[in-house]
């Protein structure tokens, strides 16, 4: 998911999804929701999603690292952590995870990204990581959780567009924007336990626009597109080595997603709108035909499953509708990032700071719902997050310590989840679920230890400060997610009983 924030930035995010009504099949009665019948595909009709039981609401979470956590210990996995965390999420009513189904490596070691990668070089797979993805899906199925499978990434934390462009251009150097360097000063006395710092523009980082200009060459690079399609083919047609289900015949996979946060390729000097986030219409933007052609390709390979873009919505109504108004895109997505977009300051304890963030989130959810209604599709809030009360960490050894309280975050989650739930209950509005960023589970910065691949698997991806947006197993946010699921279940039971 995500990237960082600095004033105008283009940043971030990923996330996931759903929870729903009682599941029909009970593969393992130890799990609240039972299993997912291979043929119980979720489908979209006008403003709602449906499954075999009826209307389908997504109580989701971003759990992007699932394939790595589920892989063998020898490649950095941790099966016991995986099942612990899946059980924790299932116990909170989570019925959907947004996961990576891609990550790209390079011929020379690259910083700031998931490691080991699924695809170390074009067309070459690390089978142990692929088995991790199989395991992730098989374990999700048992717990009644469906997946959004993210096939690429605008941002550097999984390789993504930048790596494809580099591969296609003689391993050209990627101009990385400011990213978390876990081995930069200050360091704790035990090696590889943090803290680190962000790289700095002009010192060891490029400006953001250099990075996005480089990454967005992806849309029109013929060789990069050919490799990307080969990857889509390989994942969509894979047979799960754990449960024997073919990926494109498995209803556990709700949706294929083109990429995490694909950005507009035509960026003006000045952005529009009251928050300076919006872009003017640009029908000639190569992003738009890329969405159409790629979604047609995925649909041709996986006609029973849904396809989504992974778009944030900060670009405004014109862009949002331009990338979603294709028959091969089944539902819209939105990502809401108040700190990254300059609306919220995690070091500011004033009431007006958090109130501004809540107002923005409510308006953003209402606006994006309207845009979706106009094109007759559901919309899924598949990424949002907020830091802890990190002003409490000022002057401490690390700004993202888990000891900071979470009153702002909890209030914000209630507000934004509440807005999406209200727009699900309202038949004239289009929201069908939420998916916060991101489940860190048992991870804590205080006890972190980088593994043999230099990675700490926090909820925050490796280009961002670990602990920034993490949701921990003991956090109140998990109860907010649970109450959402309970409220929706009661609502749907009532509707369906009438
Ligand atoms: C059902 O799930 C429980 C809890 O994880 C596990 O211990 C048990 O082995 C599972 N049973 C089957 C038949 O898969
Ligand atoms: C795996 O995760 C568990 C927590 O679920 C932790 O106690 C254990 O140390 C981890 N193992 C490794 C090798 O990191
Ligand atoms: C991270 O910081 C270390 C220590 O300062 C430095 O040696 C290394 O080059 C930095 N890595 C990147 C990718 O900037
Ligand atoms: C991190 O880097 C920034 C920019 O170079 C610097 O201002 C800040 O003091 C550093 N933080 C720590 C904790 O060293
Ligand atoms: C960023 O792009 C500008 C304009 O193309 C270029 O002059 C500059 O060298 C680039 N900086 C880095 C660090 O790549
Ligand atoms: C969406 O596409 C339909 C069918 O092509 C078209 O009639 C409609 O005007 C489009 N809506 C927008 C907002 O572009
Ligand atoms: C805190 O946020 C409020 C609301 O945006 C702002 O008016 C105030 O100046 C901020 N305070 C500081 C110290 O930045
Ligand atoms: C919502 O839309 C209104 C009307 O276009 C606009 O004034 C407002 O800034 C938008 N707010 C957000 C957060 O998108």
Describe the structure.
Keywords: Glycosidase, Hydrolase, Signal. With 498 residues, the protein is α/β, with parallel strands linked by helices. It has a single domain (2-495), classed as Glycosidases (TIM Barrel), CATH 3.20.20. It has helices at 66-69, 79-91, 127-142, 160-168, 208-215, 222-236, 287-301, 317-324, 351-375, 407-425, 476-497, and strands at 43-45, 48-50, 58-62, 96-100, 146-150, 180-181, 197-198, 253-257, 306-308, 332-336, 379-384, 431-434, 439-441, 471-472. Strands 9-8-5-4-3-12-11-10 form an eight-stranded parallel sheet, with helices on one face. Strand 4, helix 3 and strand 5 form a beta-alpha-beta unit. Helix 4 packs across helix 5 (208-215), helix 4 (160-168) crosses helix 6 and helix 10 runs parallel beside helix 11. The radius of gyration is 21 Å and the shape is globular. It starts with 42 loop residues before the first strand and ends with a helix. The structure holds 2-acetamido-2-deoxy-beta-D-glucopyranose (8 copies). One 2-acetamido-2-deoxy-beta-D-glucopyranose is lined by residues 175, 206-207, 210.
Short account of what is shown:
The chain has helices at residues 66-69, 79-91, 127-142, 160-168, 208-215, 222-236, 287-301, 317-324, 351-375, 407-425, 476-497, and strands at 43-45, 48-50, 58-62, 96-100, 146-150, 180-181, 197-198, 253-257, 306-308, 332-336, 379-384, 431-434, 439-441, 471-472.
């Amino acid at each position: 998911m995500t990237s960082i924030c600095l004033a105008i930035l283009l940043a971030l995010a990923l996330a996931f999804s759903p929870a729903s009504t009682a599941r029909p099949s009970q593969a393992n009665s130890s799990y609240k929701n039972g299993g997912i019948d291979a043929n119980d595909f979720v489908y979209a009709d006008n403003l709602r999603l449906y499954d075999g039981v009826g209307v389908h609401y997504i109580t989701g979470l971003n759990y992007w690292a699932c394939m790595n956590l589920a892989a063998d210990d020898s490649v950095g996995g941790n099966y016991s952590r995986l099942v612990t965390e899946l059980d924790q999420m299932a116990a909170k009513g989570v019925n959907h995870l947004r996961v990576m189904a891609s990550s790209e490596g390079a011929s020379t070691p690259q910083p700031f990204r998931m490691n080991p990668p699924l695809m170390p070089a074009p067309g070459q797979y690390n089978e142990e990581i692929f088995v991790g993805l199989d395991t992730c899906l098989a374990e999700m199925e048992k717990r009644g959780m469906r997946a959004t499978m993210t096939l690429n990434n605008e941002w550097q934390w999984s390789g993504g567009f930048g790596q494809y462009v580099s591969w296609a251009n003689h391993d050209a150097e990627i101009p990385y924007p400011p990213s978390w360097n876990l081995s930069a000063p200050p360091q704790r006395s035990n090696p590889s336990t943090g803290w680190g710092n962000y790289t700095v523009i002009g010192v060891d980082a490029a400006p953001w626009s250099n990075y996005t200009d480089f990454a967005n060459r992806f849309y029109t690079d013929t060789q990069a597109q050919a490799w990307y399609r080969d990857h889509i083919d390989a994942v969509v047609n894979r047979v799960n080595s754990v449960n024997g289900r073919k990926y494109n015949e498995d209803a556990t996979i709700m949706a294929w997603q083109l990429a995490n946060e694909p950005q507009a390729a035509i960026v003006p000097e000045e952005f529009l709108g009251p928050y300076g986030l919006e872009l003017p219409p640009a029908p000639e933007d190569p992003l738009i035909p890329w969405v159409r052609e790629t979604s047609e390709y995925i649909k041709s390979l996986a006609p029973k499953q849904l396809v989504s873009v992974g778009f944030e919505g900060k670009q405004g109504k014109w862009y949002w509708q331009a990338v979603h108004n294709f028959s091969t895109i089944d539902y819209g997505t939105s990502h809401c990032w108040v700190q990254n977009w300059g609306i919220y300051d995690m070091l500011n304890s004033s009431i007006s700071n958090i109130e501004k963030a809540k107002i923005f989130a409510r308006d953003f959810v209402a606006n994006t719902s309207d845009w979706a209604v106009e094109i007759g599709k559901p919309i899924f809030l598949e990424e949002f997050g907020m830091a802890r009360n990190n002003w409490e960490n000022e002057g401490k050894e690390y700004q993202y310590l888990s000891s900071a309280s979470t009153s702002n975050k909890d209030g914000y989650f209630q507000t934004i989840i509440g807005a999406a739930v209200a727009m699900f209950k309202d038949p004239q509005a289009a929201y069908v679920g939420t998916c916060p960023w991101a489940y860190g589970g048992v991870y804590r910065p205080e006890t972190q230890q980088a593994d043999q691949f230099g990675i700490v698997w926090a909820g925050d991806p490796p280009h961002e400060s670990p602990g920034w947006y993490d949701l921990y197993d003991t956090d109140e946010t998990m109860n907010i997610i649970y109450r959402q699921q309970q409220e929706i279940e009661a609502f749907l039971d009532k509707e369906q009983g009438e």
